[in-house]
Amino acid sequence: MKILIVEDDVSASAYLDKAFREQGHVVDIASDGLDGYALASDGQYDAIIVDRMIPRMDGLSLIHGLREQKIDTPILILSALGQVDDRVKGLRAGADDYLAKPYSFSELLARVEILSRRGRSIPTENTLYRVSDLELNRLTRRVARSETEIDLQPREFRLLEYLMRHAGQVVTRTMLLENVWDYHFDPQTNVIDVHVSRLRAKIDKGFDNPLIHTVRGAGYTLRDSAR
Amino acid sequence: MTALGRLFRTTAFKLALIFLIIFTIFAGSILGYVAFSARRLLEEQVNLTVNEEIKGLLSQFNTGGVLRLVRQIERRSHQPGSSLYLVTTAAGETLAGNISSVDSEGLLEAGSYQLYYRVVEEGEPRPHRAIVETVILPGGFRLLVGRDLDETDRFHTIILRAAGWSILLILALALMGGVFVARRVLSRVDHMTETTRTIMAGDLSGRLVVTGTNDELDRLAQSLNAMLDRIGELMAGLREVSDNIAHDLKTPLTRLRNSAEEALRVGGSSASYRDALEHTIEEADDLIKIFNALLMIARAEAGNVLEGMTTEDASEIARDVVELYEPFAEEAGIHLEIDAAETVPIHASRELIGQALANLIDNAIKYSSQNTMTDMDRSVVVSVRKEEKRVLLTVADRGPGIPDADMERVLERFVRLETSRTRAGSGLGLSLVAAVARLHGGTLKLEDHSPGLKAIISVPSIL
Asked: Which of A204, B75, B117, B133 is the S-S candidate for B112 at Cβ 3.0 to 4.6 Å?
C-alpha cells in the first residue's frame, strides 16, 4: 500500500514513516500543504494522511483542492481538534475519515487499511457476503452458517455486516462504535466488547472454526482461520 | 493635551457651542428685525405728522394768506420740542421759521426728503437728521415743515444696544453652561478612565462609581460593572479550572512517570518491560480521556454555541444508547429499561446527548452493581418525557445514591465522593453531562430516588 503523509511535525512523520514501513507499506512524506498537494495530484496513492494544521495550505483546503480535481484517493485527517463539529467540518471538506490526536498507531493503521481497500476490492453494493461457511444476505437480511439460519437482532446484523465487509482486516472498537452505532465518543466501559462477545456466541458457538478473532491491543477481525 | 484643549474636545462642549451659534444667529435676526421695523414705523409716523402739519398750515394760508401763515409759524416755532419750520419768498428770503441757515438750493425744491443739519447744543454743533417736506405755495412762497429724527435715532440706538447686550449675555451664559457641563462630564469620564486603568493594571475588584441619577453615564457605569463582575467570575472559574487541571493531570502523570521509572530501575525480562510499557500507554490513554472531557467542559463553559445541531428525536437517541449499553448492563446483572414511546423532537447534537446519556447510564450501572444486597431492585430506568416546554431525559437507578449534602458538589469538576475514590474514573463524568446540557440551553439536575439516584437532563423542546 502506498501512503502519503502530509505532516509538518518531523518527529511525528518520522514515527509514522517507520511504523508504516514496518507493516510493509510504502510511505512518502510531505511537510507542507503545497508539497502534499503536488504529490497527491496524480492520484498515485492508496491513501493520504493529512494533518489539519500544516503550513502553506491547510489540511482542509488541500483536501478540498484534491476533490475539486476529481482525485478521489481516500483521505484521513489527523487533527488535534477533536470536537464533534471539527470532525463534521473535516468530513464535509471531502475527507473519508477523521482521527483526533493523540491516537494509537494500531487505530490509525486499521483505519488506513480499511480506507485504502475501500472502492478497490469490496463492492459495497454486493448483496451477499460470504466468509468460510458464514453467509449474510443484505437484501433478505438472512444470516446462516453451514446452512443453519442464525437469528440476529438488527444491531447485531449491522455489526456482523460491518465485520464481514472488512473481513480479514482489523477493525477497532471505535471504528465499530462509529460505523455501527454512529457515535464518536469514547464509552468509558467495554460496551463494544460485550456486543461482540454476544455476536460471537451466536456465530461461533458450536463450531470448531471460530471466525471472529480478538486482535490484542487493537480490536477485532473476522476471518477464516482454517485457511 | 492642555486642560482647556481637552475641554474643547468634549462632545458636551461641542454640542453647547453648536447650540450657541444657532441660538445667537436666531436671536440676532429677531432683534435686528424688531429694530428695523421699529425704525421704519417711527419714520412713517414722522412723515404722517409732517404731512398733517403741512395740511393744517396750507388751510391757514388759503384762508388768511401769507401773513396768517407767517404768524402761525412764528407762534409754532417757539414752542419747545417743535417741528422745523421755514417760510421763504420765491427768491429764498426767509419770512419766518426756526431754521437759521439753509442751503437754499437743495432745500426749497418741492417734495419730501431727508435733511442733514447741525444743531448747536451746549456750544457744540451736533449733526442731526430730519424728515422735511417742502411745498410751493401760490405766489412762489415756499413752505418747509420738518421733524427732527434725533429721538427716533436715539430710540433705535437703544434697541440696538439692548440687542447687542442680550446677545453678549446669551453668549456668555451658554459658554459658561457648556464649560460647566463639559467639565462635569469630563470629570466623571476621567474618573471612569482612571478606574478602568487600575482595573486593567490587574486590580479586578475595582468598580466604577454609580451616582444614582440613572443618567447615561450611570447606565454605562452599571453595564461596565456588570461586565467586570462577569469577567471576575470567569477569571475565578478559570483559575479554579487550571488548578484542578494541574492537580488532576499531574496525578496520573506522576503515576505514569513513576511506573516508567520503576521499570527502568528494577530492570528484568523483556516481558516485564512490555508490561510496564503497556501500563504506560493505558495511563496515557486515561490522560487523553480526561483531557478531552476537560476541553468539552471548557467549551461549554465558554458559552460557545455548538455548530451543526439538528432536529433529533430524544426518544430515539435514548433508545440507541440503551441498546448500546443493554448487553453490558445484563452482564453486570442490571435490568436496563427504556420508557420512551412517543417521538420527542429536540434541537440537539445526537452525538453529545448520546454521550451524556451514556455517561449517566454508565454511572448508574456501575453504582447499582456495587450494591451487593441481593434483595435490592437492580434496575436502571431511562425515560424521555415532554413536560410543557422542556424535554426531560432521566436516568434513574436504585444504587446507593448520593447524600443530600453532596448533591450540588458532585456536579463540580473532578469531585469524586470519598466512597468512590478507589474506583476508576476521572470525576469528570457528571460535569461533562452538565456541560452538554448547558450547550443545549438546558440543565442537569440530580434528585434523590430513595433509594438511588435520579439524574435529569432538561433541555428546551421544540414545538
From this structure: B133
Residues of B in contact with A183 (CB under 8 A): 324, 351, 354-355, 358
Beta-sheet pairing, A47-51 with A75-79: parallel
**Which chain A residues touch B if contact means CB-CB below 8 Å?**
82-85, 88, 100, 102, 104, 155, 181-191, 194-195, 198, 217
Q: Catalogue all structural domains in chain A, each as residue range(s) with its CATH number.
A: 2-117 (3.40.50.2300), 128-222 (1.10.10.10)
Partner-chain residue, chosen from B308, B327, B355, that has the shortest CB–CB distance to A85:
B308
pLDDT one-digit tens code per residue, B235-275: 877 777 677 677 767 877 888 888 888 888 887 788 888 88
Chain B environment of A155 (Cβ under 8 Å): 323
The minimal CB distance from B351 to the residues A183, A188, A217 is found for A183
B409 band by pLDDT with thresholds 50, 70 and 90: low
B419: confidence class by pLDDT, cuts 50, 70, 90: very low
Q: How does pLDDT run across B19-55, given as a tens digit for each residue?
A: 788 888 888 888 888 888 888 888 888 888 888 888 8
Strand partners, A28: A4
CB contact under 8 A, B349 and A84: yes
Mutation target for A interface from B274, B280, B281, B326: give the one with most A CBs within 10 A: B326
Taking an 8 Å cut-off on Cβ atoms, the answer to whether A194 and B351 are in contact is no
CATH, domain B310-460, list 3.30.565.10, 2.10.109.10, 1.20.140.10, 3.40.120.10: 3.30.565.10
Quote the pLDDT of residue B418. 42
* Model pLDDT, residue A119: 55
Pick the CATH number of B3-158 from 3.30.1490, 3.90.75, 1.25.40, 3.30.450: 3.30.450
Question: Which of A109-113, B6-10, B90-94 is least confident?
Answer: B6-10
Q: Is the pLDDT of residue B11 over 80?
A: no
B287-324 per-position pLDDT tens digit: 887 777 777 777 766 665 566 678 888 899 999 999 89
pLDDT at B364: 85
Secondary structure of chain B as H, E, C letters? CCHHHHHHHCHHHHHHHHHHHHHHHHHHHHHHHHHHHHHHHHHHHHHHHHHHHHHHHHHHHHHHHHHHHHHHHHHHHCCCCCCEEEEECCCCCEEEECCCCCCHHHHCCCEEEEEEEEEEECCEEEEEEEEEEEEECCCCCEEEEEEECHHHHHHHHHHHHHHHHHHHHHHHHHHHHHHHHHHHHHHHHHHHHHHHHHHHCCCCCCCCCCCCCCCHHHHHHHHHHHHHHHHHHHHHHHHHHHHHHHHHHHHHHHHHHHHHHHHHHHCCCHHHHHHHHHHHHHHHHHHHHHHHHHHHHHHHHCCCCCCCCEEEEHHHHHHHHHHHHHHHHHHCCCEEEEECCCCCEEEECHHHHHHHHHHHHHHHHHHHHHCCCCCCCCEEEEEEEEECCEEEEEEECCCCCCCHHHCCHHHCCCCCCHHHCCCCCCCCHHHHHHHHHHHCCCEEEEEECCCCEEEEEEEEECC
A172 closest CA partner among A78, A223, A107, A114: A107
Q: How far is A185 from chain B (nearest CA, A)?
A: 6
CB contact under 8 Å between A84 and B323, yes or no, is no
Which of B306, B324, B351 shows the shortest C-beta gap to A184?
B351
Q: A88, B307: Cβ pair inside 8 Å? A: yes
Residues of chain B contacting A194 with CB distance shorter than 8 Å: 327-328, 331
